[in-house]
Specification:
By secondary structure, the protein is an all-alpha fold. The chain has five helices and no strands. Helix 2 crosses helix 3.
Length: about 100
């Protein structure tokens, strides 16, 4: 999926928001030169779970997203569209919870 500049200015529905999160996890992982297996070891999650998450076949918990962010040495907010603003860690967790509860 190619993202254009218009993507950032249109409100996203929940499925698109989650697809964006999964795509960001994958792109950050690749940018940092981390394999799925290495991310699996760093986050204590299975490699198959990581692969299915990146494909959008698995839904992560808040804790899982935090584990992945820590393993990639980024903030969980880095997985979300720039149009979503967070000021605190609690706001990040709340936004993730809200997204996942809407499924």
């Amino acid at each position: 999926m190619s993202i254009t500049i218009e993507y950032y200015f249109k409100p996203m529905d929940i499925k698109n928001q989650l697809d964006y999160v999964f795509q960001k996890i994958r792109s950050i992982r690749i940018l940092k030169g981390v394999s799925q297996m290495e991310l699996s070891l760093r986050s204590n999650l299975s490699q198959s779970f990581i692969a299915n998450l990146e494909k959008g076949k698995k839904q992560p918990s808040v804790l899982t997203l935090i584990k992945i962010a820590d393993a990639l040495d980024v903030s969980p907010k880095d997985f979300f569209s720039e149009s979503i603003n967070f000021n605190t860690k609690e706001q990040v967790k709340e936004q993730i919870r809200n997204l996942l509860e809407m499924l």
